Every structure is written in C-alpha cells, then in structure tokens.
Amino acid sequence: MYFIDFFKRITRKSNIPVLIYLILNVFVIAGIINFVLVNETIPFWQSLLIGLSLYVISLFIALSPVGEWILRLQNGCKKIKRVDQINFIEPIFREVYDKAKRLNPSIPDNVKLYMNSDEDPNAFATGRRTICITEGMLYMPENQIKATLGHEFGHLAHRDTDLILIVVVGNLIVSTFILGIRLVIDLIHFIFWILTLFIGGPEGVFAAILNYLYHALITAIVVGLTWLWTKIGVLLVMKSSRENEYEADEFSFNLGYGNELCVLLDSISGSHGKGLFANLASSHPDKNDRIARLQNLGATYKSTFWG
User: Fold this and answer.
1) What's the pLDDT tens digit per position in 172-197?
2) 10 plus 130 within the same structural domain
3) In a domain, 307, yes or no
4) Which of 61, 84, 108, 224 is most buried by a 10 A CB count?
5) Dihedral sign, CA of 77, 83, 85, 90?
C-alpha cells in the first residue's frame, strides 16, 4: 500500500520534473555502466537493463528504513542523549506528535526525534519516521518549536520526504555499486600489469602504474559526475515541491500553530544555514508569501513596524 501511494503521489503534476529526472536517471546509469565497462564491449540495451534493475532495487532500499538511516547519517542526525535536552524537547515533541496523529492518522507510529549540531534553528523530516532538529532549535521559544515540528509532521503526513530519499539515497546506492565494480576492474588490471614486471622489467612496472592512475582518474570522474547529477536531482525535487511547503504550513496552522509559525518565519529569515538546510531554504517559497497564505487561512499575526 505504501509503494502504491508513493507512485500515485510522484505522478502528480507538480512532480513531473522529478519524474522526468528519474527516467533520465536510468539512461544516465546505463551510460555510466557502459563507460565503466568500456573494455567489456556490452551492448547499450544490456547496460540499460542493468541500469533499470539497479535503480529499481535502489528505490526499494531508499524507501526502506535503510535509506532513512543513510540520510540521517549524511546529515549528522543523532539520538538526543543529554538528560536536560531530552527533558526539555521530548514533552514538546510528544504534544505535537499526538495532535498531528489525531489530525492525520496516516502519520506512522514510532516517529523518532533526532538532532544534529547545527547552531542555526531549523528542522527537517525524512523518510517516514524521522524528524531531525538542529541544536539551535532548542533555544527558540517553545511555541515556535511546536510550530516547526507541526510543519515537519505535515511533510510526513503528505509523504513529501520520499522524493529526497529516492534521489539522494537511490543515487548513492547505485553510484556505490558502480564504483565497486570499477575498483574491482582496476584491481584486476593492476595485478595483471604488475605481472609484467617479470616480463617487461622496470618499463612494465612504469606502464602498470600509469595504467592504474588512468583508471583511478576515470573512477574519480565518474564519482564526481554522479555527485553533480544527484545535486541537480535534489534541486529539481525542491523546486517542484514548493506547494508542499504551503501544505505543510497549513498542517501546522490546523494544529493551532499558525501565528507562531509566522513569527518564526519572520525571525529566522536572515539565518544562513549550512549543508542540506541551506539547500532546502534556498528553494523554499518566499517567507512573505508563506506568511500571507497563513494569514489568509486565519492567522492573526501582524508584525510591528517602527517608523
């Protein structure tokens, strides 16, 4: 049922750019396989079949708890261990979780809260059972923390986080597999050329080293291009999902945190996050548009302007 719902959601009009990206991904992976196995002279249709099989497998892994764990690892999300931090944030998290679950029972059980060391106040949801806050979020007013968590539960309720999983984790799995194949081939070539020491003397060793460096360079290029292609995929996901941000804001509003979310949006607009958070923020809708939508929903927030 989960995978059926996922494929229904990915075919929405707003996700068409991402769907095109995923289809192109199969051809890109096939091309990489063809390039990596250039000495094996396999036809492109076989590379395409291998690429499709690899990508389907990677999608299932990405949408599993393994994919969720990989993304947590990439973003430094860890279990909260300090007693004072747990005593402060856990009751807040539980209160919002209970309200979100009543509003949308499809939110999974056992959603867990994690934290990374970023000092800028922020949060993100990933997979089906992960919400990660930054350490800086602990120092925000309690109601604004609730508004933020309500927004992230909105993403879980609408399954917005699956696209990031399949782009980031899916590509990581495929590129790791391809890199493994490449390294095995390089090792075999290196061993083969080392054997020329007994035939070609010092010149054979020199040729072996040059051959190994050549294949290492090709491997680095393949890894670099895969990384760049993944970044493009993430940007496409974020650019095509602006409407999801408005929907997550509305979810937080329906939980009763509309005004607090408006205050939060106004207060952190000048914050400069790092890593994934910076990428996400750069692709989010304008904060004034988000506040305006919340006001249209019924939020009574009004900023104080000084003349």
Assistant:
1) 776 777 677 777 777 777 777 677 66
2) no
3) no
4) 61
5) positive
